[in-house]
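Notes to self, Exodeoxyribonuclease 7 small subunit:
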Amino acid sequence: MTKKYEELSFEEAMEQLEKIVDKLETGDVPLEKAIEYYQDGMILSKLCSDKINNVQEKMAKILNEHGEVTTFEVEEEN
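result:
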């Protein structure tokens, strides 16, 4: 993970990811810049996914400590 992203909150990372998607969707981005945006987007996507997984693990631990057994399933979009 690059230094410029590792301190972002989930919300900040999602906001930056949305901006990148908007830029790429316009189609007016030079190829080299599009590749750079794509790479950044993949990093931000992984960061968000990791943060969600971390929260799910914490919630499962809390619920298990209180006698509630639960699993979290993330629906994947096709």
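- The mean pLDDT is 86.
- The chain has one domain: 8-65.
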